[in-house]
Amino acid sequence: MIDTLLTPELFFEALGETLYMLGISLFFGSILGILLGIAVVVTRPTGVLPNAVASFVLNAFINVVRSLPFIILLVAILPFTRLVVGTSIGVNGALVPLILMVAPYIGRLVENSLLEVPEGIVEAAKSMGATPVQIFVRFLLPEARGSLVLALTTATIGLLDATAMAGTVGAGGIGDLAISYGYQRFDGITMLVTVVTLVVIVQLIQLFGTRLARKLRRR
C-alpha cells in the first residue's frame, strides 16, 4: 500500500480553492485588463483619441506592475489587501494581488492584439465617418477577437501559475497542498498528483482557447 497523506477530501478542497481564486481574479482582472489595453491603444500618438499624458501614465503603470515578481507584489500590497477584503491570508487574501498582477498583463496582451489589426481597417472606418466608439466596437474588436481569445488564454495560464505560487505563502489551493504536504512532509504522491493536476488544467485551458480562437477567426 502506498503511504500518502493525501485524501480525496483534501485534494478536492485544494482544487476548489484554486478554481475559486482563478475564476474570481480572472473575471475582475480581465475587465480591468481589457479596459487598460483599450485605453493604451486609444491614447497612443496614432490612436483615435491621442493623449500623451494618459498614454505615459498607463504605460508606466503597466510596466511597473509587470516588472514586480508576484511574490514581491503580494507582500508589498498587504495593507491594501487587508483594506479591500479584510484579510491578507487565505484564498480571499490572494485575490487582490492576483487581480493586480493579471490586469496589466492582460492589458498589454490586449494592446498587442488590437495593434495587429491592419491600419487600413481603421482608416476605412474613419473615412466612413465612424466615431471612436464605433471604430472599436464594429471594426477593431471583431477583427481582433481571435487574437484576444488567445491572449486571454495565455493570461489564464499565467494566472494559474500565480495561484499555485500564492499557495506557498498560505493562500490555499493546489500550491499550498504541494508545499505543505508534498514538499514539507516529503509526500511524493501528493507532489505528483498536484503536478499532474496543474498540467491537465493548463492543457484543457489551452485546448479550449485555441479551438475557440480558431472558430472566431473563420467567421
Ranges where pLDDT stays below 50 over 5 or more residues in a row are none
Q: What is the CATH first-level class name? A: Mainly Alpha
Main beta sheet strand tally, sense and closure: none
Q: Given the structure, what is the number of helices?
A: 9
CATH fold-level topology: MetI-like fold
Mean pLDDT: 87
**Secondary-structure element order, as H and E?**
HHHHHHHHH
How many domains, as an integer?
Answer: 1
Strand content: under 5%
CATH architecture designation: Orthogonal Bundle
> Which outline best applies?
elongated
**Share of helical residues:** over 70%
* CATH superfamily label: MetI-like
Distance between the amino and carboxyl termini:
54 Å
Number of strands: 0
Radius of gyration: 20 Å
Pfam families: BPD_transp_1
InterPro entries: AA_ABC_Transporter_Permease (IPR051322), MetI-like (IPR000515), MetI-like_sf (IPR035906)
Keywords: Cell membrane, Membrane, Transmembrane, Transmembrane helix, Transport
Domain ABC transmembrane type-1: 15-208
